[in-house]
Amino acid sequence: MSEELKLVINIAVVIMALSLAAAILLLVLAVRQVKKIRVPPNAGFVATLQGTPLVVVLGLDLLDLALDMFAAPLGWTILEYLGLKGLQTITVIESLFPGTQLIPTLTLCWVAARLMPDRLSDLLRDVQVGSSRDPRA
Q1: Exposed, middle or buried, 107 (CB in 10 Å: 0-12/13-18/19+)?
Q2: Which of 54, 49, 61, 53 has the alpha carbon at shortest distance from 23?
Q3: By C-alpha distance, which of 48, 50, 63 is closest to 104?
Q4: What's the start-to-end Cα distance of the chain, in Å?
Q5: Domain assignments of the chain as residue spans, ordered by start
Q6: Cβ atoms 55, 24 nearer than 8 A
Q7: How far apart are alpha carbons 24 and 34 in whole angstroms?
Q8: What is the pLDDT of residues 84-106, one digit of tens each?
């Protein structure tokens, strides 16, 4: 194995380890913060994001960076425990796509939910409607 490849692998392992450590720390802090908020049980993605502290989405994005697709079941379990069911589906779908771990998707959605919630809701509604259309129509 070439020295350059070894260096790249070592850097990737260090980044993954640091991301995992940061994710664990942030999610432990998140448990304390989330217990203080109340998100309605039937809240959608945008409504849940608006009530979710930034530390939660940062922790989940770091977990995704550290573990890639293996973060999906952990993310689902963490969100279930925190009572943030409105985030589960999109978080898991994003985690299952290989290579997307470099994009902090949930953090970007959190910012969008704060700055332009109506636009994000419309976008998500368009995606749902588009995916449920009958292709024969």
Answers
A1: middle
A2: 61
A3: 63
A4: 54
A5: 3-131
A6: no
A7: 15
A8: 888 888 888 888 887 788 889 89
55 contacts 33 by C-beta, under 8 angstroms: yes
Can you give the chain as a three-state secondary structure string? Answer: CCHHHHHHHHHHHHHHHHHHHHHHHHHHHHHHHHCCCCCCCCCCHHHHHHHCCHHHHHHHHHHHHHHHHHHHHHHHHHHHHHCCHHHHHHHHHHHHCCCHHHCCHHHHHHHHHHHCHHHHHHHHHHHHHHHHCCCCC
The predicted structure's pLDDT at residue 14: 93
Closest CA to 121 of 39, 97, 129, 75: 129
Cβ atoms of residues 58 and 107 within 8 Å: yes
Distance, CA of 81 to CA of 117 (rounded, Å): 25
pTM for the whole thing?
Answer: 0.79
